[in-house]
């Protein structure tokens, strides 16, 4: 009987150890300020567990709050709200550098299980990630929906 109880207590101790390690690893990742690839996030206010920076996001006069925060953290600030990353750019120079000069890097779309896998909407133009397939769809869309294309649809519009 004692041998069975000892086996159960060892198994329970091992399970507690594994759960503790997973909790410590999660807490370390949360407190270390690094992303999945191990690179550090840009500076920003320290958040709380689970809700992260929920209380740091301003509800009114956002521009004033972000201007004050940019004096402390710089032109690029990082927030997380319920594990959703948010990057705030507080200067035109940084915004142009990231979104104009490096647009190919940052032009992706978030993956939606509902839209992509459950509804099979992988090839919808608005959900495509930037790349050769997106450029092909964009070109076809632009050829038919730019302002000068209206005359070719005049006979349909007037019916």
UniProtKB/TrEMBL annotation:
Signal peptide: none annotated. SUPFAM superfamilies: Cytochrome P450 (SSF48264). InterPro entries: Cyt_P450, Cyt_P450_sf, Cytochrome_P450_fung. The chain crosses the membrane at residues 6-28. Keywords: Heme, Iron, Membrane, Metal-binding, Monooxygenase, Oxidoreductase, Transmembrane, Transmembrane helix. Its cofactor is heme. Coiled coil: none annotated. One of its GO terms (molecular function) is iron ion binding. PANTHER family: P450, PUTATIVE (EUROFUNG)-RELATED-RELATED. Belongs to the cytochrome P450 family. This is Cytochrome P450. The lineage of its organism: Eukaryota, Fungi, Dikarya, Basidiomycota, Agaricomycotina.
């Amino acid at each position: 009987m004692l041998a069975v109880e000892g086996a159960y207590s060892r198994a329970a101790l091992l399970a507690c150890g594994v759960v503790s390690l997973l909790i410590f690893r999660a807490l370390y990742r949360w407190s270390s300020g690094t992303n999945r690839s191990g690179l550090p996030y840009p500076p920003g206010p320290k958040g709380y567990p689970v809700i992260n920076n929920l209380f740091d996001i301003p509800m009114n006069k956002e521009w004033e709050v972000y201007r004050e925060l940019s004096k402390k953290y710089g032109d690029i600030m990082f927030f997380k709200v319920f594990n959703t990353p948010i990057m705030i750019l507080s200067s035109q120079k940084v915004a142009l550098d990231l979104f104009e000069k490096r647009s190919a890097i940052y032009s992706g779309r978030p993956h939606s299980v509902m839209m992509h896998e459950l509804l099979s909407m992988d090839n919808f133009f608005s959900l495509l990630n930037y790349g050769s397939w997106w450029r092909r769809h964009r070109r076809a869309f632009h050829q038919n929906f730019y302002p000068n294309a209206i005359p070719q649809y005049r006979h349909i519009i007037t019916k």
